[in-house]
Write a structure and sequence with these properties.
Elements lengths: L7 E4 L7 E4 L37 E5 H5 L6 H4 L7 E4 L10 E4 L12 E4 L2 E2 L12 E7 L2 H7 L7 E6 L37
Parallel strand pairs: 6-9
Antiparallel strand pairs: 1-2, 3-8, 4-5, 6-7, 8-9
């Protein structure tokens, strides 16, 4: 490799600070790099944070907000149904607002709990999932393999569901969004069926 005598050589490496050295006509250079523990762009930080998808070696399913908007669900767990491979969603009852049971790649234990760990905006979430508005979710990531154990310890033994909520953006104009859904169930003009009102009748 050739370079001009008055040129500058830039040396960089993952995890170290980039250093620029003037060549000054030298043929041999000895360069020492300092460690850079804050190189977030190169070093992937996953535990309770973010990661580059192309550099993440584990198995993860990502659901964007546009996909969540296509499904009318009152609970975040119901929004995951059929969206991620290996994720089973089962509803114990049909009560409005009730959370569904999530099983990532089956049941991991017969005696211990089998629910995955929920992480909302970087913090473990132990509250009621019905308190999270599906319209406020920016994306959901489901970690499905041993990578979740390495990142979250025993709490991630059943998988991890990472929820990232929407954040405000800089704008001079106020933005107001209104979304309302209503359902009506009626028998209309049809009369009631002839049902058993008194067991003694039959």
């Amino acid at each position: 490799v050739t370079a001009p005598a008055d040129g500058t050589l830039s040396v960089s490496f993952i995890g170290y600070e980039t250093k620029s050295v003037a060549i000054a006509g030298k043929t041999n250079l000895t360069i020492a790099l300092n460690e850079d523990t804050q190189a977030i762009e190169d070093v992937i930080v996953v535990a309770y944070g973010t990661a580059k998808k192309e550099a993440f070696t584990g198995s993860a399913g990502v659901i964007k907000s546009s996909e969540l908007e296509d499904r009318q669900a009152s609970n975040v767990t119901q929004s995951l149904s059929g969206r991620v491979a290996g994720l089973q969603v089962a509803s114990a009852n049909g009560q409005p607002g009730s959370s569904a049971s999530l099983r990532i790649r089956g049941i991991g234990s017969f005696s211990a709990a089998s629910e995955p760990l929920f992480v909302v905006d970087g913090s473990p979430y132990d509250g009621n999932l019905s308190n999270i508005n599906p319209a406020d979710i920016e994306s959901m990531t489901v970690l499905k393999d041993a990578a979740s154990n390495a990142l979250y310890g025993s709490r991630g033994a059943n998988g991890v569901v990472i929820i990232t909520t929407k954040k405000g953006s800089k704008s001079k104009d106020a933005v107001v969004t209104f979304d309302m859904k209503i359902g009506v169930n009626t028998r209309s003009k049809y009369a009631d069926y002839d049902v058993i009102k008194d067991p003694a009748t039959y």
